[in-house]
Amino acid sequence: MTNNLDTLATALYATTDDLLKERGDLAPWRPAVGIAPRLTDAELVTLAVMQAMLGFTSEARWLRHARAHLRHLFSYLPQQPGYNKRLRKAAELLRHVTRILATSTSVWSDDVWIVDSAPIECGRSRETVKRSDLAGWAQYGYCASHSRYFWGLRLHLVCTLQGLPVAFALTEAKVDGRETLLDLFAAEPHLLASRPGQTLIGDKNYFGHDFEGELAEYGIQLLRPTRKGEQQRPGGSLFKPLRQVIESVNETFKGQLDLEQHRGRTPNGVIAPVMQRILALTAAVWHNDHTGSPVLRSLTAYDH
């Protein structure tokens, strides 16, 4: 099997279609009586992933491109309003497909995870902040990595060293990353049930005696840099290269998958594009893993 966007799209479509045949409840709700959509849910998922891979942040431009170049894959393509509405309603399906693909990779069982958060800017002008439907969820926050303030949300991500997303959450910009991490593990206890001695690597903001005690109850060993005034912690020499891994995963989302160019103006309008990009990265890792690619997180074969 070769590594290119067409083969990834074909494999993703077949996997999603099989999943929906087994689990019809995962499909977005629609009335039992009515006209069946001409674009199936499996095709919708595939189309959304291809959009993220090819870097189209405008849905209208993406559909024009698809009509010109992807007719061999999709016999029918909706207009932009219909595509937008269906994609927003399919966020939960995107999440389920993401997990199915992730659990079928060889790196899902890795015993080392990394955790970090990334800002998702949702507006810059004061007028946008006052009038946006995201007001009350989006907040002003600070990104230490780029020394900038922003108004928006924050994506908290747990992934493997190869960049495979394991768990994630979209929260207000000022929410404590430690609380979010504990909530993620509490919401999905099965993630750690069969992983005794899981190692988690984070930055210096994941600190605290009580916090580390709660992680220990889940069977997690936390590795992080030593904070000022602390005694030297074990594994300090490992953090500089591993920190680059964390930043590299974030750069894949922002630089290649345009995470902050989501164009969402409502909660569903932000959640669906973020899920779209997480699924795109997961699909790339999944396909690279099954085709024997040496670099699992590489998107080079699919971005043109």
Describe how the helices and strands are arranged.
Layout: H1 5-22, H2 41-54, H3 59-69, H4 80-89, H5 91-103, E1 112-123, H6 126-131, E2 139-143, E3 148-160, E4 165-172, H7 177-187, H8 190-193, E5 198-201, H9 209-217, E6 220-223, H10 239-256, H11 267-290
Parallel strand pairs: 1-5, 5-6
Antiparallel strand pairs: 1-3, 2-3, 3-4
In short, what is this structure?
This protein is an alpha/beta fold. It is built from 11 helices and 6 strands. It is 45% helix and 15% strand.
Could you characterize the architecture of this molecule?
The protein is of the alpha/beta class and 304 residues long. It has a domain at 110-263: Nucleotidyltransferase, domain 5 (2-Layer Sandwich). Helix content is 45%, strand content 15%. The protein has eleven helices and six strands. Strands 1, 2, 3, 4, 5 and 6 form a six-stranded mixed β-sheet that branches. A hairpin with a 4-residue loop joins strand 2 (139-143) and strand 3 (148-160). The longest helix has 24 residues, at 267-290. The two termini are 18 Å apart. 31% of the residues are buried.
The CATH superfamily of the domain at 110-263 is identified as: Ribonuclease H-like superfamily/Ribonuclease H
Overall pLDDT score = 91
**Strand count:** 6
Shape: globular
* Major β-sheet profile: 6 strands, mixed
For this structure, the CATH topology of the domain at 110-263 is Nucleotidyltransferase, domain 5
Give the class-level CATH name of the domain at 110-263: Alpha Beta
Query: Helix fraction?
Result: 40-55%
List low-pLDDT spans: none
Radius of gyration: 20 Å
Tell me the series of helices and strands, N- to C-terminal. Answer: HHHHHEHEEEHHEHEHH
